[in-house]
Amino acid sequence: MNEFRNHxxxxxxxxxxxEELTVTLAALDAELPLRVETLVAAKGIxxxxxxxxxxxxxxxxxxxxxxxxxxxAERALELALGSRWPRRSPDERATVLERxxxxxxxxRHRMTALVVREVGKPWEDADAEVCxxxxxxxxxxxxxxxxxxxxxxxxxxxxEIRVRPRGPAAVISPWNFPLSxxxxxxxxxxxxxxxxxxxxxxxxxxxxxxxxxxxxEAGVDEDALAFLPAGGELGQWLxxxxxxxxxAFTGSVAVGLEIQRRAHAADGQRQIKRIVAELGGKNCVLVxxxxxxxxxxxxxxxxxxxxxxxxxxxxxxxxxxxxxxxRFSERLAGAVEILRVGPADDFATEVPPLIDPxxxxxxxxxxxxxxxxxxxxxxxxxxxxxxxxxxVDAGHLPADTPVLRDEIFGPLLTVERVxxxxxxxxxxxxxxxxLTAGIFSRQPDRIDALIDLLPAGVxxxxxxxTGAMVGRQPFGGNGLSGTGARAGGxxxxxxxxxxxxxxxxxxxxxxxx
Amino acid sequence: xxDALETRIRELAQELWRVEPSSWQRxxxxxxRRQLGSLDGRPALxxxxxxFVDAAPACRGPIDRGAHxxxxxxxxxxxxxxxxxxxxxxxxxxxxxxxAYGLASGPATAILARQFIAGRDVKAAxxxxxxxxxxxxxxxxxxxxxxxxxxxxxxxxxxxxxxxLRVLAxxxxxxxxxxxLDADQHGSLPRANLxxxxxALTPLLRxxxxxRGAEDAARRLRPxxxxxxxxxxxxHLDMEDFDSRxxxxxxxxxxxxxxxxxxxxxVGVVVQAYLRDADETLDRILSSPSLTERGVPPTxxxxxxxxxxxxxxxxxxxxxxxxxxxxxxxxxxxxxxLTRRLIDSxxxxxxxxxxxxxxxxxxAVAYLERRGGRPEELELQVLRGLGDELAEGLSRLGxxxxxxxxxxxxxxxxxxxxxxxxxxxxxxxxxMRQRHQSLEELLKAPA
Lengths: 513, 447
Fold this sequence. Notes:
The complex is a heterodimer.
Chain A: H1 15-31, E1 34-35, E2 38-40, E3 43-45, E4 50-54, E5 57-65, H2 70-82, H3 90-106, H4 108-119, H5 123-145, E6 157-165, E7 169-172, H6 180-191, E8 196-199, H7 205-218, E9 225-227, H8 232-240, E10 246-250, H9 253-263, E11 274-278, E12 283-287, H10 293-305, E13 315-321, H11 325-337, H12 357-369, E14 374-377, E15 390-393, E16 412-418, H13 421-429, E17 433-434, E18 436-440, H14 444-453, E19 458-461, E20 478-479, E21 497-505, E22 507-508, E23 511-512
Parallel strand pairs in A: 1-5, 7-8, 7-10, 8-9, 10-11, 12-13, 12-18, 13-16, 15-16, 18-19
Antiparallel strand pairs in A: 2-3, 4-5, 6-21, 14-15, 17-20, 22-23
Helix pairs in contact in A: 1-4, 3-5, 3-7, 4-5, 5-6, 10-11
Chain B: H1 3-17, H2 27-38, H3 43-55, H4 62-74, H5 95-116, H6 122-134, E1 137-143, H7 151-173, H8 179-182, E2 183-184, E3 187-188, E4 193-197, H9 198-201, H10 210-231, E5 234-238, H11 242-256, E6 266-272, H12 278-286, H13 289-292, E7 299-303, H14 308-318, H15 328-344, E8 350-354, H16 358-370, E9 379-383, H17 388-396, E10 400-407, H18 410-425, H19 430-436, H20 439-442
Parallel strand pairs in B: 1-4, 1-10, 4-5, 5-6, 6-7, 7-8, 8-9, 9-10
Antiparallel strand pairs in B: 2-3
């Protein structure tokens, strides 16, 4: 792992770097809409009837495509079952990932521009996403080469652990990280020898298509990766299909639990499906009385409103010591009011539009529930999918309000006043989700005690709670927020393979030969 | 290498070096320095103490403060703890003990702070400023404050600046004349001299969209310069981290391009020699018509730069090459190069060399002499609490010294204070270098 380094982000504070992206985006725009195809055995199957659109301007089509047919999916699965990919050596498979990382690094500008367009993600986040995808490829490539298990050895005995491919994996991925999250799941499965049936999110087929083509170009066997853009039904089929060995899913808690229920129901199943699920959160930030507000306020704003709150790691609730609550609320409100809502391709934008009309309706539903409790509201922008970022005083909400429970996935943050941070931690523990959490405090022993109390999968101290980096903050949740895998961490690949322990007696005729 | 120049640098440096602090005159300063000195070679203790100093003003009373001190000390591993602090490491620390330490640490922090911060506000600092003036030293006042995250905070900072300018103009009016401080070859020099922070003047500083922050800052910069013109005061735009530089220069150029500010007020900018592209920044300033074609030439303050660690951390976390030189000698060499350029440009700008580096100061003076300049054509600047002895020495050489003097309350001043303390107790810092290095080492040319 020592050789691993995160791919450098673009230095967007330099004008010439921004200029290059702007030029790349214009070139991409000239190509739109992209004709996205279903890919089975690396052959494209084109179709009509579906599209993805730019959330900033829904009239602009980013991709046109047809959904994959049931026949295509069946054929893809049969090919996967017969693929020689599992029999390739770990080194060969890792080399393919590393080649893919090189290709992606070469094309980073175009991929960044595509992420900006297809899911309305502002430049800085889009660039970070492309880098994360590159990081996953390199990190898992290295990881597969050196799984590094040492067993105890006794005299006359040789013990080892080997890993075995499990069979085909279904990857069902989200739109909010349309490149990096599927890249991590697909490459994790591939490098451990599982052929992959990859279903992108409906909202972001073009990003998924580019990823699949890139992996095939890098040398993934044609029968080991199928790209199957689809509506909801294909996913249900994949989940229930007994010949699928592993399901990698990132999405909502509700869908994640549904997958758990349905995955094991089919007859003819020959192994227990492994489910690697990364689910939603209701992420809380605890603010202590000794907080440095100069640091905390900008970090919390970024955590809650970056990409319009559409990150699973985003901050949803702040719980603030009463000694500093008024000052905190006042300063935070002032910082929220000046948030710039606008199109993703504008470098000045801080809050882009929401992904689709359903997301807008959902956000508005929760925003209405907060009527009368607003602490601050930023100005929205013209366009059907823009909403006004909101800061809400939870003290003016009913105690049982869903605003404090549900994952809203939009730019809405609540502030709660607490007697002390123990009370705050207890409130956080009542939530079933446990993905990320933040602590702003400057007393080391208090911080330690709070970390113990918080069940979150990733705890951030004195910093923003979004922006996990591969190899630095392995990412995943506890509680209902996931099955425990940590993307970008040293143990992630384990979830995609079976282990086989081999113990050999090396004694012959009473001596070790 | 220019031997005559080097010889003269050495002579001047030795002259400055002889001005030793007279500790009995300033017992508190001496005490503060002894405390800082005792942290030398104990990095964990040093870190604990500075984290405590940083957090102390935000604590809720003595018990909370004592509890913080205890928590930081418990993290110190494998280094001797000063005997006075040992009771806090015990297994039992009753509340009265915490309270006692909490109570005692308040004044201790205040003593440290007073070395570097001249008072809570301009009125409280006036006595200090006047005393400096009598000693022959001018000031550049700096308002410490919390960072600006909202419109209201930007407005509040603007009003603090405006109020400070008014008070400064009033109180400095009847100070006795100091010819060296009151004029240079270009004409009179304002006594009221305020350094402002662009990042405090707008909450919209975004490195990816410098135009946005510049436009917002300009809305407040205009009336501020208008007021300074009215009062005959000097406004200096401080340079901060690399992320804010483009916004700052854009804002300044835009506002100063306006005809109304062509002849007044007196303004200043900063060039940071630790930046790899410092030469280009000076090029930009020297070729900017809104700066150099003014009725009054702008002051260009040359500094080494105070955000070296910050820039390296940011760059390291993002995988970038840092915008700052990686080696100290590279910064020093850049500093000398830019010093020469500024002195050679003294017909169109007022050079102000701001450093505590003995060699850098001696080099500036020696080069000015070499170019046939008179002492009033060069200004030398130091920080309050760090460059006091140097200031005395430079005044004796007949040079105009301006002391950068922060004011503000303790909570707001803590970020500034901690940075100064870190500098002061690190081996790169001026005091530690004086303690550990010979004059010979200090004077080596930065090649």
